[in-house]
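Hello forum,

I keep getting stuck at the same step: I have a sequence, I want structure tokens, and every attempt I make locally crashes halfway through. Rather than fight my setup again tonight, could one of you with a working pipeline run this one for me? It's a single chain of 541 residues.
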Amino acid sequence: MNPVRHTDVLVVGGGPVGMALALDLRSRGVDHIVIEAGDGSVSHPKVSNIGPRSMEFFRRWGVANRIRQAGWPRDHTLDSVWVTRVGAHEVYRLPVGTSETRRPFTHTPEPDEICPQHWLAPLLADAVGRAPDAGPLHLGHRLDGFRQDADGVVAEITDQASGAATTVRARYLVGSDGASSSIRKSCDITAPARHPTQVFRNILFRAPDLGRRLGTGLALFYFLLLSDSLRFPMRAMDGRGLFRLSVRLDGGPEAAQPAQTLIERALAVDTPIEVLSDHRWHLTHRVAEEFRDGRVFLVGDAAHTLSPSGGFGMNTGIAGAADLGWKLAAELAGWAGPALLDTYRAERRPVAEQAVEEANRNLVRTMSRSIPDDLHEDTPAGERARVAMADRLERSGIRREFDAPMIHMGYRYTSPVIVPETCPPLTDESEQRPNSKPGSRAPHAWLRPGVSTLDLFGDGFRLLCFAEPGGTPADARCDGYERAFAERRVPLGVTVCRDPEVAAVYRRPFVLVRPDGHVAWRGDELPADPGALADTVRGAL
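Reply #2:
Ran it on my machine without issues. Output:
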């Protein structure tokens, strides 16, 4: 008979999203196990851009500084360029600067960062902790099957190195096992395609002298203007000579050429090249019909897959893990209402749909772009073609692919645990981002050097009280709320803020923020019944 282990949450899949959920559960004191069939190594890195909202979560989980220091050169340009070939004619450039010189971010304390997966994976594994020494992460462990009942989930797991089998009894199971998720399939949850599937090759190669050869032509993304197959980005992976070239296999016969040939076709400079790997993959656009089946939940690619155009995929998954984490913790701690866990789907599925559609628009923009025959010519006609192409690129909305705050953090949740606003609308706030509308990610403002309002959120609910001239002090008016939440065992902290600049960002005198940093309620006055507010935001009404 197999030995039996007990835990609150079993996370299957140790990619960035599964590890993000583990970090969130750890921050809330939830017992959990993470199993990953692989050995933790990443030979062909996929992920590199960590968006600002993900960095905000990593800040709360204590790893943001480690991500910043992972190795991306702070003086390497973050520009994107459209080129006839890399090192040939530069048609258009989106200037950003470097991590040191780019325009300061005012809406977040954590700008996006470059951290390719072969850096990120071991960093997160160290932060979570590998078993059996220091943590819950079990590498080289395979899920063989599971069943669930009214009390939990029973999973059968095999250590692939030793062949030893273990039974894990968990209160909940979370599938973070990728786009072809066996957990999703076992639950009979469908994820129909929303757009045609595309087939690509990602060629990873090293060209240590390329940056020096390019000089002022250096960039982060090089969008090729060559052919149907070679019109996608070649991108710098580590800022030190590691690159990845994306080739569309459906784009024509040249896509089947050897990797070395395709790289040489993309480059207009003669430089040493070492091909490291050549990976074929399917680009799909799917959103699971359900994100939950009883005690089983789906996160990341198991719940949604989308085009990498825009860098939304991993970041959408990390935000989903943060949404699910506090709700599982609330349920396990006994203060969640019966509706709370179901709001995971209600809140995250529309966000996933929005990200899928925006990413596909970016993909279609690139795929549908016509490439004039004379674009590459060193002639007056070629120069005119490049000027015209630059104008078309500018007018086509390409900036959206690199500046999409609405996708990363501008969305608003709508669910039974978000209290609709009843006070008169603020007429100048309709399109303002970020904002403190219920369901929105609570705005960032500096409380003092190095300390953001976002640093107040995470451990429980946070009631922000902004002092007003005259009348009853804000802190006295909040006393009944602390008692009402405590009676229901709902963690609540109260912050009285007398900084007029912070108050101006939050707009209302009272704002209640959830453990995941989203606004649950706001108003000009506190509701007369604090218990009703507590019951609503915990899913008990």
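The chain is about 30% helix and 25% strand. If your local run keeps crashing, start a new thread with the error log.
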